[in-house]
């Protein structure tokens, strides 16, 4: 299995942009509540975990960028 055109960290970088976009949508109150509910710091949550938590709080996450997923 090859690494593809993005190399080793390409997919992670694209995912990180989406995580940052989702994180920017949250108020500091929501960030604290999510951290308390998950027992993890927001920085330690994956895209999928953060998206699931946002949906629990009724916040619609941004759609994935083209080429993601």
Tags for this entry?
3 helices; globular; 69 residues; 0% strand; single chain; mainly alpha
3D structure, described in words:
The structure is a single chain. The chain is mainly alpha-helical. The chain has a domain at 27-57. Helices cover 52% and strands 0% of the residues. The protein is built from three helices and no strands. The protein has helices at residues 10-24, 28-38, 47-56. The longest helix has 15 residues, at 10-24. It is globular and about 30 Å long. The two termini are 18 Å apart. 6% of the residues are buried. The mean pLDDT is 78.
Topology:
Blueprint: H1 10-24, H2 28-38, H3 47-56
Biased composition (Pro residues): 60-69
Region (Disordered): 28-69
Biased composition (Basic and acidic residues): 30-44
Note the gap between the termini: 18 Å
The helix-strand sequence is HHH
Instruction: Give the tally of β-strands.
Output: 0
Would you tell me the structural class of the helices and strands? Answer: mainly alpha
Overview in brief:
The protein is mainly alpha-helical and 69 residues long.
